[in-house]
Design a protein that fits this description.
The protein has 262 residues and is an alpha/beta fold. Helices cover 38% and strands 21% of the residues. The chain is globular.
Length: 262
Amino acid sequence: MRQCFKCGQLVSHCSFETYNKSNSEWDFEEGTWPSKKDIKRLTKRRRRDLDYVSQFLSKRFSDLTLLDVGCSNGALLWIASQLGIKAEGVEVSPRAAKNGIERGLKIHLGYLAELGLPENSFDVVTLYEVIEHLDSPADLLEECNRLLKPGGVLVVGTGNTDSWTRRFMGNRWDFFDLNQHGGHISFFSTSSLGILASRTGFSVKKVKTSSVKFFDKGECSYLLYRVAKLFSELLNFPSRIFGKGHQMEAYLVVSEKVKQRR
């Protein structure tokens, strides 16, 4: 692992072969569509995110245009469309994209920079669990800036390297585990993400973090796991207050149109 001593960003030193192999795990028909058990929880979380964006932009759902980058087979697109949002997605995994299209969702197959979508097209662009897969995240954020309308919102969901979970688990943290989360090579703190935002024409409107854990199930005895889980639940609220949760969501607002510098 390499680290920038100025901003604290961590970058994996894994080989290109390992990176490609671990990334390939996402190319399957089921994509990331949640189970019946999880769909309500995901809908609640994403509804909360979209409510915030709607309020910030002073627009009703029916007036919002959304692009989900790395949409897999389109669970977020389905949730957004149920709310009346005009939503479309981008996905590089052919089988996952095909599955989403067969569900009636609008999904573009390929890399965002290669699609040539019209500039100033969207009110909100979402990057949920995408940025950690990139060796050059600034390029993607600049393209998102181009596609967003002036004052539009970019929502970035990723892991928080400055979390209590990461500090306790160290190399066991699941965001670092190529076997558990394929293709993760870039890791951000709230600080380093803010620096990246300012370099790519965004300002940080809000950052929230959540969730604390110390062990994955099966990693220790059942009794220790239950005790640790109880303790982590007690820390969930303080982790949100102090920005120490290991799941991070940042709301970035277009402050400068990067296209004007090109």
